[in-house]
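Dear colleague,

Following up on Tuesday's group meeting, I ran the structure prediction for the four-component complex that the binding team flagged. I've pasted the input sequences exactly as they went in, so you can double-check that nothing got truncated or mislabelled along the way. The C-alpha cells for the whole assembly follow below. Feel free to forward this to whoever is handling the docking comparison.

Inputs:
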Amino acid sequence: MKLTNLQQEFVLHFGEMGSRWGINRTVGQIYALLFLSSEPLNAEQITDGLGVSRSNTSMGLKELQSWNLVRMKHFPGDRRDYFTTPEDLWEITRILIAERKKREIDPTLTKLRELELEGPKGDNYAEARIAELREMIELMTGFYDDMEKLETERLVKMMTLGSKIAGLIDKTSGALSLTKRK
Amino acid sequence: MKLTNLQQEFVLHFGEMGSRWGINRTVGQIYALLFLSSEPLNAEQITDGLGVSRSNTSMGLKELQSWNLVRMKHFPGDRRDYFTTPEDLWEITRILIAERKKREIDPTLTKLRELELEGPKGDNYAEARIAELREMIELMTGFYDDMEKLETERLVKMMTLGSKIAGLIDKTSGALSLTKRK
DNA sequence: CAGTCATTTCAGAAATTTCTGAAATTGAGA
DNA sequence: TCTCAATTTCAGAAATTTCTGAAATGACTG
C-alpha cells in the first residue's frame, strides 16, 4: 500500500509526536494511518504502508485496542481483522481524555488517599500539601465526571461560549472557594 | 538529608509516574521532593535526599526550569541556588496545562495548518479529516485560552457548579454545533 | 485431520533514554 | 587577578524501550 504524500506527512508527524503523547512511534503511526483511511485496514496493509515488521504492527494494534482507540471489523468471506478509528472526533476525544485520566491521574489519586489513610506522621507541611493536592485533583476529576456526562451538543455550546461563561457563573449564587482566604 | 517515610513514598510514586507524565524518574522525584518541602532546597540536599548523582540533579533541575515548574531562590551570604515549587496549586496546574499544551498540542496544530496550506492534493477523505481535526483542536484550545484568563476564584466556582452548568448553557440562545447534523 | 492463512508471542537485537563521573565553566569574594 | 565552591556539560555506561524475525498458536477449509 503506497501512502499519498499527505498521509505520509501526517503519519510521520504522529510518529514523532508519539513519545510526547506517551505512545511509541509505531503506535502513533498506525493510529494516524487509520485515522486518515476511509476504509478499514488490515494488519498487512498497515505493515507495508508504514514499512515496519508484521509483529510490530500486531503489538501496536494491541496497544491501541487497550486504549480503546481502534475498532475491529470483519468482512464476509475474509478472515483477516480490519481496523478503524471511531468516526466521531468527539468520541475519540472523550476516549483519549478518559484513558489518560486513568493512566496519569487515577493512580496518583489512589496513592494520595493511601498516604492520608496511613494517618498523621508528624510531617505537617507535607501532610497538608498532600491533602491539598488530593482536594485539587478531586475537584478537577469531579468536574471532569460532570462534563463527561454532557452530550456533545452542549459541550460544544459551552466551549463556544468560552469566556461568556464567566458572566453566567457570576449570576449564580453561593461562591465557594478552595483557595486560601486572604 | 534523610527523607521522612511520607516524603519517601510520595517521591517514589512521582518517580514511577514520571514516564507516564513525559518526564524521567529523577525529574519526577525532584519535583515531588520540592513540592513537599516547606523550605527551599539546594542541589546538594536534593542529590543526597534522592540518592542520585549531582549531575543528574543538575539536569533534572534544568528540565524543571524549562517547564517553569520550579523557582530559584537565594539567601544572603550563601551562593548556592535554592529551589521551590510555587505555593499555589492553581498556579502549578495552570503552568502544567500550558506547558503540556505547548509540547503536545501546538506542534500538531501547526502541522495540520501547514498540511492544509499545501492545498488540496486529491485525497478528499484525508483532507476532510485533517480539517475536522484542526477545527476540533482550535475549538478546544480557544476554550482553553478563555478559561486561562479567568481568575482562580471563578474557575473554582465553575468547577464546583459542574453539571449545573448545563442548565445555564441551555438558557443562553444561539445554539452552534460543529457536529454533523442528522 | 492435514494444510493454509492470520495473528500472537517472545527472545534477543537495535535504538533510545537516562544516568554517572570527570572535566570544564562560571562567578563571587579575597 | 586568582581561588575555590557551585554548577554545568558531556562522553560513555547502564537501563529501558522499541522493534524484529522466527516460532508458536489458533482457526477455518477441503
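The longest strand of chain A covers residues 78-84.

Cheers,
M.
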